[in-house]
Predict the 3D structure of the following.
Amino acid sequence: MSKRKRRHLSAEFKARIAREAMGNQKTIQQIAKDNDIAPTQVSAWKKELESRVSEIFERKNATNEAAVNFEKKSARLERRIGQLLIEKEFTGYNNGTTSHFRC
């Protein structure tokens, strides 16, 4: 008995099999037999698809939320820089030396 050569299956193939398994039109055993793969592999791909399907929508919202947070933080830091520059000019602080106001 010779060892079966390892196959590298594409992501599209795995997704198609997982979607087919989620459809419940065929049993996992039927899908595995039709595609010459192990039933446990079909079950694993189905479980992974079920557990990660919500990521499709979460990532979009998470990206938008991260961008909004980044913009808020940038605006806050820019305001603080502006305040510090005004304070520096007002106090006359320049390169480590202070100049006093003369009246």
Summary: The beta strands are 93-94, 97-98. Residues 55-92 form one domain. The CA atoms of residues 68 and 74 lie 10 Å apart.
